[in-house]
């Protein structure tokens, strides 16, 4: 299709996502347990915006003319890579699916999308919507199944030119091995995080910092890749700030994700819940203090719910400070100086996101420069949009979703060198 035709299709898809927002959100909630109020914004709301962004962007991407000798014409063409394999997780399938699908389709590729085993309903409906809006048959294919079967087949396929993935580091490593064992397809990975949220005593509003930090870890029961799961607090305000944050966490209503009064929904699965509780048990063994929560709740319903949990006295080497929980578990560590804060912030294998709370502009810039992360929030946490990239460093992955930089994954560059 010509770019103008692709634009029309993607705009229609965005319109349909908006028209079916409640249905799509409920489909996702029934799969993954995200609280509906958050799901409406984060899933169909975000996905519609993503399709619109890349619909508008696709005909603003040009080739290049190289500066050459007068008798030579050097052209740089941007061509679709071909077939994109996309594997997405269960926590925000529609949002993250759109981050992969929209730029890949806008660039003119075909996509084979593999949802998580526990969250495929909204993406299956999205595939139907795309067909109904004029996307040609076969351009978007959704293949459900176990990662060890469908995901492995996709990653080993010689017909897949680029593989994009959001999920765990263990799976990311396997996908790189599968690439090496097949056609050396490019693999772009958005993996886990152990993101530090650093609060200095001179934060402009400690009460607001506590409120935002609580939601930065406890929304969606902590099942967010950029969750601020490590709280680093300047020692002079440590006890007071932890108390403020605990008060905010106690206000959160954990319950049925389809109940509009619920502010925190369910854990995705029993396996995930048991893993979360295992981190709490290990923290106790390592001498940490459970300042709030730490237990399963609403067991009589048969559902998977967990109390917002705050663990203090955590050293950088402790398990709950090193490994991604992907649950409503916050590890709190005190620090004494800017240098101490940077050392602790950078003490994990991950580098996805971070937060800094300070009124000192010079300190803010130093922390942004010094923290090794793809995104650093200052006096806020979360909330960025499609105008800026999302990606990690270290073992949080490579490549970027969102923004114009996402196109880099879905185009090949071809040089034409012409003697005139």
UniProtKB/TrEMBL annotation:
This is Gamma-glutamyl-gamma-aminobutyraldehyde dehydrogenase. Residues 2-415 form the Aldehyde dehydrogenase domain. GO terms for molecular function: oxidoreductase activity, acting on the aldehyde or oxo group of donors, NAD or NADP as acceptor. Pfam families: Aldedh (PF00171). SUPFAM superfamilies: ALDH-like. Belongs to the aldehyde dehydrogenase family. The active site is at residue 190. InterPro entries: Ald_DH/histidinol_DH (IPR016161), Ald_DH_C (IPR016163), Ald_DH_CS_CYS (IPR016160), Ald_DH_CS_GLU (IPR029510), Ald_DH_N (IPR016162), Aldehyde_DH_dom (IPR015590). Keywords: Oxidoreductase. It comes from Lutimaribacter saemankumensis. The lineage of its organism: Bacteria, Pseudomonadati, Pseudomonadota, Alphaproteobacteria, Rhodobacterales.
């Amino acid at each position: 299709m010509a770019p103008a035709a692709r634009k029309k299709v993607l705009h229609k898809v965005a319109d349909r996502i908006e028209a079916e927002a409640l249905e799509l959100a409920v489909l996702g909630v029934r799969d993954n347990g995200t609280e509906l109020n958050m799901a409406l914004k984060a899933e169909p709301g975000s996905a519609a915006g993503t399709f619109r962004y890349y619909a508008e962007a696709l005909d603003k991407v040009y080739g290049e003319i190289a500066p050459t000798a007068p008798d030579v014409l050097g052209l740089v063409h941007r061509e679709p890579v071909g077939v994109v394999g996309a594997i997405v997780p269960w926590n925000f399938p529609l949002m993250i699916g759109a981050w992969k699908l929209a730029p890949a389709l806008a660039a003119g590729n075909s996509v084979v999308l593999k949802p998580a085993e526990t969250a495929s309903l909204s993406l299956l409906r999205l595939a139907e919507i795309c067909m109904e809006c004029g996307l040609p048959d076969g351009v978007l294919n959704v293949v459900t199944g176990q990662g060890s079967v469908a995901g492995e087949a996709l990653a080993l396929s010689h017909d897949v030119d680029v593989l994009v993935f959001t999920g765990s580091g263990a799976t990311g490593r396997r996908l790189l091995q599968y690439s090496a064992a097949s056609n050396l397809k490019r693999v772009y990975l958005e993996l886990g995080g152990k993101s530090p949220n650093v609060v200095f005593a001179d934060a402009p509003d400690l009460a607001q910092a506590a409120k935002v930090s609580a939601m930065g870890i406890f929304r969606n029961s902590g099942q967010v890749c950029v969750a601020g799961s490590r709280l680093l607090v300047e020692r002079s305000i440590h006890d007071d700030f932890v108390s403020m944050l605990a008060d905010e966490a106690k206000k959160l209503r954990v319950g049925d994700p389809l109940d509009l009064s619920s502010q925190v929904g369910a854990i995705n699965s029993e396996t995930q819940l048991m893993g979360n509780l295992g981190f709490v048990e290990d923290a106790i063994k390592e001498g940490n203090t459970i300042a709030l929560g730490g237990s399963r709740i609403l067991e009589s319903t048969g559902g998977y719910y967990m109390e917002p949990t705050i663990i203090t006295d955590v050293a950088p080497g402790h398990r709950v400070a090193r490994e991604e929980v992907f649950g409503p578990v916050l590890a709190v560590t005190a620090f004494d100086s800017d240098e101490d804060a940077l050392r602790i912030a950078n003490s994990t294998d991950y580098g996805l996101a971070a937060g800094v709370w300070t009124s000192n502009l010079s300190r803010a810039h130093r922390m942004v420069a010094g923290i090794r992360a793809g995104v650093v929030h200052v006096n806020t946490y979360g909330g960025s949009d499609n105008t800026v990239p999302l990606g990690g460093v270290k073992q949080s992955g490579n490549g970027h979703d969102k923004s114009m930089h996402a196109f880099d994954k879905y185009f090949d560059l071809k040089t034409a060198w012409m003697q005139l």
